[in-house]
Q: What sequence folds into this?
């Protein structure tokens, strides 16, 4: 039997793909790349280089790649695995999630999360205000027209400040913007733009130093140089052809 490196289901040797999740079970001969993980410490300490061995590499408080300096990192929080001849990654479904560095403009769905600097933000829909029988709104205030907002999440997922997003571009930064985080030294002066169009939102990094990260919601393929945030630890993946 062949065990799927992604979901753990046992498959007959003749299966080309997993019966459980559909992932390829056999890589083309000679196609496996050499993978090294560069761990960038949050405290600025020396980086670590850890090669991937075998079919699967986990990271977390007690993973193959140990991340022990953050109390909010789960025992196993991220899983790298081969799918055919390519490296893939997925959230192991624990802790505060896994975030991938944004390489191009991306849509963020309702319920999606992003990180910039030390900020973790959750996107929520805002219900339109409904007038009463006489046509006036509660408290006598007009509907400001916000349809989306981002909610600041603290360590452990505790909700903090909420920021409504106006239609169009909303600039996030440390020194200037519609939403600012003046005490977060890891946020650039101008960091990212959240472009609201009705009930849809697109995120774009504007050349920040430390990047903008979106939370993984499914398994994705990994390219050389991709970066992932797990807690406060940054993993940079270096892939070399076999």
A:
């Amino acid at each position: 039997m062949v065990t799927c490196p992604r979901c753990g289901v046992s498959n007959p040797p003749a299966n080309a793909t997993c019966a459980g999740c559909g992932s390829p079970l056999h890589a083309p001969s000679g196609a496996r790349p050499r993978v090294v993980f560069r761990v960038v410490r949050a405290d600025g300490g020396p980086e670590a280089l850890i090669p991937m061995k075998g079919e699967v590499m986990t990271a977390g408080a007690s993973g193959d790649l140990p991340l022990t300096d953050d109390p909010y990192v789960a025992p196993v929080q991220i899983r790298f695995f081969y799918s055919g001849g390519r490296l893939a990654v997925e959230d192991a479904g624990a802790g505060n999630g896994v975030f991938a560095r944004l390489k191009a403009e991306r849509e963020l769905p309702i319920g999606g999360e992003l990180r910039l600097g030390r900020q973790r933000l959750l996107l929520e829909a805002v219900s339109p205000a409904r007038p009463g029988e006489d046509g006036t709104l509660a408290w006598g205030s007009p509907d400001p027209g916000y349809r989306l907002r981002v909610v600041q999440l603290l360590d452990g997922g505790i909700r903090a400040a909420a920021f409504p997003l106006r239609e169009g571009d909303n600039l996030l930064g440390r020194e200037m913007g519609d939403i600012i985080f003046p005490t977060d030294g890891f946020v650039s002066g101008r960091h990212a733009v959240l472009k609201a169009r009705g009930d849809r939102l697109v995120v774009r990094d504007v050349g920040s130093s430390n990047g903008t990260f979106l939370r993984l919601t499914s398994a994705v393929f990994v390219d050389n140089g991709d970066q992932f945030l797990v807690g406060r630890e940054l993993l940079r993946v270096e892939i070399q052809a076999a």
User: Anything to note?
Assistant: The two ends are 26 Å apart (CA to CA).
